Amino acid sequence: MKDRAWLYLPFFSAVLIICAAMLVLPYETVYVRDRTYLRLFLVTIVVCVFVFFVGTLFNIVIWMQGKGLAGTPERRLARTLLRASRFVLSRRFGKVIAVFLGDALYLSKLKGRSSLRWAMHLLILGGFVLMFVLDLLVTFSLDFLKYEPMIVSDGWAKLWIRDFAFDLAGAMMLAGLLIAALRRFVWKPKILRTELPDATSILFLLVVVLGGFILEGMGISGRIPGHEGSPEYSFLGYLFSLVTPSSAGDYYDQAWLIHGVLSALLIAYIPFSNLFHMIATPVAIEVDRMLSKEASS
Amino acid sequence: MKKLDISKLDVLALMRYDACTRCGECTSSCPTGGEAQDVELVTPRGKILRLREFYKQQYGLRARLLGPREIPEEQLAELVSRAYECTICGQCKTVCPAHLDTIEMWENMREFLVANKLAPLPAHEQIIKSIENYDNPWMQPRTQRSRWSKRIEKEVKIKDSLKERCDVLFFVGCTSAYDPNIRSMAEDMARVLAKAKVDFGTLGNEEGCCGSTLLRTGLLDAARRMAEKNIERFEKASPSTIVTSCAGCYKTLRQDYPKIGKVGPKIVHSTQLVRELIDSGRLVLDKRVEGKVAFHDPCHLGRHNKLYDEPRKILEAVPGLELVEMERNREEARCCGAGGGVKTAFPELAQKISFMRVEDAERTGASILTTSCPFCYQSLKAAIDVKGSKLKMMDLMELVRAACS
Questions:
Q1: Number of folded domains in chain A?
Q2: Is B100 close to A195, i.e. CB distance below 8 A?
Q3: Given an 8 Å threshold on Cβ–Cβ distance, is B49 in contact with A195?
């Protein structure tokens, strides 16, 4: 019981703080016009983020049930986290970062084996990371700093970050996902079975990314506030707007909610799908490298 | 309901099961799954997904909320059988973009299957009993272990390292010691050591199986007992170096024994020692051995221990020999098909893979196929004979011995 309390109390407190922070942000500059849709989205995302953290924790608790450590799984995890946090402050942390950048992000090993797969993975991962960083940056500069060039329609940050950089991140993901879909469904090796989770993950991601561009196209063609300035900076959304009737803008809020809910569900789905490798693979690479270094030294 | 006990899976292994990206890079290069059978469940991806699915059904969030689900017996049995069709060659470790240490994963998976009373396979049980009763997997009496040395006793002085102090202990290994068709490998090694005036000895009939077969089939406790006995003997003999010409013994002594007990002497493979002897001028290769030779990298020596250059440097030092490389060499070398207990439990599958390796060698135009592992030698020699190939199978030490005047 004590072990569980040591792990779960700080964990759930941290998750609740993250969820509360998501709820109290002002969201003054979101594109959706009807605040009811925003509230519906916020409820969904908070639930989904909670599910994501709980699912991730339970997956890690399963790891901790294995052989090699002493104590209850919760105690093992708490101790491991404590050791990991000490490691962050140590001199060897630089090595951890280098391994993470080279092996987990840049995928050095894959590059040597298959350029296409390497490009595919780098596009998806790079797009995902870029979008996450941009989201944090934009949220911070809009909701905390109220940074004007990020808000006004002709501000440099609005055009180059909110419009261009987001589209670039989305385009990277889209290109990578299309290659992944072709490799999975068309050019796949004979022996490779495509099970439901394989198909679901790719299709789910494709729907969310494509949905984002369709939504942007609707916003541009319907002249929704925030999209009416210089739409060509949102280069891919702009292309979609060319084939989207302006009347589609009438349904912008509903489409925004659907896209938001799907994105939130994707987050909740991660720990229960093969997308969990986004978390597990870098962790496994780091642990392996650190353990083999310890063994050799 | 059969409840799987995941406490026998390593923490790291459980992490790696989740880290598998399901990309399938490993499927086509897997010698037993992708190349020989086209069965995904034998491939790393197949095994990982199936085992992960099984334990998640009993330990995942859904199992916590709604209770564990039963795994159909026949599905479990199929996974067990497929898991043992793997030669643990480590090709998947080479290709895995997620850097998963699959060699450790498969050995640990078998340990888990044994702990859950799902393995070993009936075909392995006889070997296991033989090791436990006779200290060797070949059902041969202990008193016959040093018989191989009788033929050369007049020619070569081999010390009994338990009675006489010697610098190098030659750990012969069960296959070279007992298989009458392979005994010459041990003889050649002894001759080469004698030629270089190495002060060496063996444990004689006291040498026990290194435990590799037990470790690779998941029987850790039995392997530990074998290892402890051997470590005790090493301590008694106290040489400065232990040399073995068997790649399986080398991996076990070098990688597994230190996890069980303290091994004082330096562990080297015969290729490392012989290369050193050649480089230092103690062993002179001055007789011509004509031929075009292809070297097969044993998995336990190559991918498991990263020893690729030593055998090649030795071959290059033999006058008259021309070394040619197979298309798949070094880290990418195809397995011979015998390892991981496959030859015992699935001889036809092992033969199919060894045929492919012999064909790899034939394509180089080589006249000789050589290797530095008795197990690979045994399986490739059999494939050459059955296929009626023109290749001549030779052990690396046989070539070295032939090059010594």
A1: 1
A2: no
A3: yes
Radius of gyration in angstroms for the set of CA atoms belonging to chain B, rounded to a whole number: 22
Distance from CA of B103 to the nearest CA of A (A): 13
The pLDDT of residue A297: 47
Cβ distance of B10 and A68 shorter than 8 Å: yes
Residues of B in contact with A193 (CB under 8 A): 40, 46
Whole-angstrom distance, CA of residue A258 vs CA of residue A241: 18
Contacts of A40 (CB under 8 A, 6+ apart): A257, A261
Print burial letters for B94-117: b (CB count within 10 Å at least 16), e (below 16).
bbbbbbbbbbbbbbbbbbbbbbbe
> Which chain A residue is nearest to residue B93, measuring alpha carbons?
A109
- Report residues of chain B scoring pLDDT below 50: none
DSSP structure string for B183-236: HHHHHHHHHHHHHTT--EEE-GGG----SHHHHHTT-HHHHHHHHHHHHHHHHH
Q: Rounded CA gap, A123 and A172, in Å? A: 5
A271 preceded by cis ω (within 30°)? no
Tokens in use for B49? 């997904």
Quote the minimal CA–CA distance from A66 to chain B in Å: 4
Beta carbons of B320 and B291 less than 8 angstroms apart? yes
**Least Cα separation, residue A46 to chain B (angstroms):** 19
CA B229/CA B214 separation, integer angstroms: 14
Question: How much is the pLDDT for B348?
Answer: 94
The pLDDT value given to residue A189: 74
Instruction: Domain of residue A74: give its range.
Output: 2-296
Model pTM score: 0.90
Give the Cα-Cα-Cα angle B393, B398, B404 (nearest 5 degrees). 145
* In contact, B270 and B245? CB cutoff 8 Å: yes
Quick: pLDDT tens for A208-247. 999 999 999 999 999 998 888 788 999 999 999 999 999 9
**Which residues of chain B have a CB within 8 Å of the CB of A116?**
none
Percentage with pLDDT > 90 across chain B? 85
Instruction: Sketch out chain B's domains with CATH numbers.
Output: 6-118 (1.10.1060), 123-276 (3.40.50), 283-403 (3.40.50.1860)
Report the C-alpha gap between B179 and B185 in whole angstroms: 10
Query: CB within 8 A of A269, min separation 6: which ones?
Result: A204, A275
Q: Which of B8, B22, B38 sits opposite A274 (nearest CB)?
A: B22
Q: Are B47 and B82 in contact (CB under 8 A)?
A: yes
What are the phi and psi torsion angles at B315 (to 5°)? -60, -40
Contacts of B66 (CB under 8 A, 6+ apart): none
* Complex prediction ipTM: 0.90
- In angstroms, rounded to a whole number, what is the distance separating the alpha carbons of residues A81 and A65? 15
> What's the pLDDT tens digit per position in B40-83?
888 899 999 999 999 999 998 888 889 999 999 999 999 999 99
Neighbours of A284 (CB within 10 A): 26
Asked if B38's CB is within 8 angstroms of A62's CB, the reply is no
